[in-house]
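Re: that backbone. Tokens:
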């Protein structure tokens, strides 16, 4: 994972940060989009002007947090993929579960990672890991597909990419607990991915 550590170092260096600096302390406040940098400075116990030495505004802070989130998501997806290297179908299920677990365990990151506003500037520090996270899923779909036509693969990739954040939001809010299902939430998530990844969906008869 040398590529990930290299990008992470560049992200932190560009903001003058180390993992124990201002940014991680501010993460919990990011769940409330209306927070101010001055509020974050109080949580970090630093001067009001401190964050402005690293971030021009809140969006700059969001981009750093989002980039770090995508880096960790890529690491988790890569680990999940390696577990089922010889079974493309199970690898796709593992990727979906890794994505949902990441959202539950890193909600502050997840809340800003897919905000379209922070992606408009196309900054490499954010764009590179974000694109890699998507490409890892696209590659997994390609390896699992029998019919290697573009439309089938893109349609299936879009379906999984859309399903993952839906399950992530449900898991973060524990929504399934309010639906009186008898099936455990973790099983519902796992089995819904398996249902989507039926052999026919992958171009198999």
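Recovered sequence:
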């Amino acid at each position: 994972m040398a590529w990930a550590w290299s990008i992470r170092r560049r992200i932190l260096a560009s903001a003058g940060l180390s993992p124990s600096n201002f940014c991680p302390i501010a993460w919990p406040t990011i769940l409330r989009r209306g927070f101010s940098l001055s509020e974050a400075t109080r949580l970090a116990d630093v001067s009001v002007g401190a964050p402005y030495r690293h971030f021009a505004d809140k969006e700059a802070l969001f981009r750093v947090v989002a980039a770090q989130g995508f880096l960790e998501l890529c690491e988790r997806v890569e680990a999940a993929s390696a577990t089922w290297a010889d079974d493309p179908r199970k690898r796709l299920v593992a990727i979906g579960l890794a994505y949902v677990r990441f959202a539950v365990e890193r909600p502050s990151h997840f809340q800003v990672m897919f905000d379209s506003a922070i992606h408009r500037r196309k900054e490499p520090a954010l764009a590179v890991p974000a694109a890699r996270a998507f490409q890892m899923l696209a590659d997994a779909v390609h390896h699992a597909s029998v019919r290697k036509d573009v439309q089938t693969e893109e349609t299936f990739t879009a379906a999984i990419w859309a399903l993952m954040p839906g399950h992530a939001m449900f898991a973060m809010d524990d929504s399934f607990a309010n639906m009186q299902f008898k099936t455990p939430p973790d099983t519902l998530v796992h089995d819904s991915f398996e249902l989507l990844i039926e052999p026919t969906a992958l171009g198999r008869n």
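Confidence is low (pLDDT under 50) at residues 1-8, 17-22. The chain has ten helices and no strands.
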